[in-house]
Amino acid sequence: MTDGCEVMSELPEKQIKRLRGLIQEAETNLAAAKELLISMLGDGNVITAPRETVVMSPEGKVIEGVFDGQIMIGPDGKNYPVPANYASKSKLIEGDILKLTITPEGRFLYKQIGPVERRAVIGTLIHHDDKYFIEVSGREYEVLYASVTYFHLHEGSQVSAIIPANNEDAAWAAVEAAI
Questions:
Q1: Residues 134-154: what's their mean pLDDT?
Q2: Which residues contact 17 (CB under 8 A, 6 or more apart)?
Q3: Taking CA 20 as the corner, what is the angle to CA 15 and CA 22, rounded to the nearest 5 degrees?
Q4: Among 20, 38, 110, 146, which one has the highest count of C-beta atoms within 10 angstroms of its own C-beta?
Q5: How far apart are CA 99 and CA 104, in angstroms?
Q6: What values do phi and psi take at 146, rounded to 5?
Q7: 3-state SS string over the chain?
Q8: What is the pLDDT of residues 162-175, one digit of tens each?
């Protein structure tokens, strides 16, 4: 049994850890946004007019954004649903740049156009809070349920996964294969 002081000291630690994670996520998104801007404008000193958030083309509306582990976040901050089976099979990870084409018929077509640097890890699949995670050296990375079903994984499976190489606070991993 714990006294009130121990419970109170745990709460700020959890809040601080969450805040640090949010800051790292914001920094990752900012870095991805800068990469996207450079890819649109070039890396020179000459500044040209930026492309609009939504570009019309013969194929439909084209939007570029950053994958956050589940969804694509557009340059306008709007969330776009990424099919879990596409994210799983394409092994998308946090920070990847995606291009979404919304066809005149209303179909959403995604393409990965800017993968971030990756690092392979090996861990164990665990399940809690109605979510799946890969535990790697005491650290948990959430994985899409579609990956669990696609690779026929079960709790306790040994898994090779991919995480962003330059994001220490990444919350998500992509399953590479069952071991």
A1: 96
A2: none
A3: 95
A4: 110
A5: 16
A6: -60, -35
A7: CCCHHHHHHHHHHHHHHHHHHHHHHHHHHHHHHHHHHHHHHCCCCCCCCCCCCCEEECCEEEEEEEECCCEEECCCCCEEECCHHHHHHHCCCCCCEEEEEECCCCCEEEEEEECCCEEEEEEEEEEECCEEEEEECCEEEEECHHHHHHCCCCCCCEEEEEEECCCCCCCECEEEEEC
A8: 999 999 899 999 99
| Other C-beta atoms lying within 10 Å of the C-beta of residue 179 | 10
Place of tokens 């709007």: 78
Q: How confident is the model at residue 15 (pLDDT cuts 50, 70, 90)?
A: confident
Strands 79-81, 118-128: pairing is unpaired
What is the token pair recorded at 67? 């994958």
> Cα(130)–Cα(122) distance, rounded to whole angstroms?
22
Terminal C-alpha separation, the chain: 40
Q: What mean pLDDT is predicted for residues 113-118? A: 94
C-alpha to C-alpha distance for 41 and 175, rounded to whole angstroms: 33
| Amino acid, res. 138 | G
CA quadruple 15, 16, 17, 22: dihedral sign:
positive
Read off the pTM.
0.68
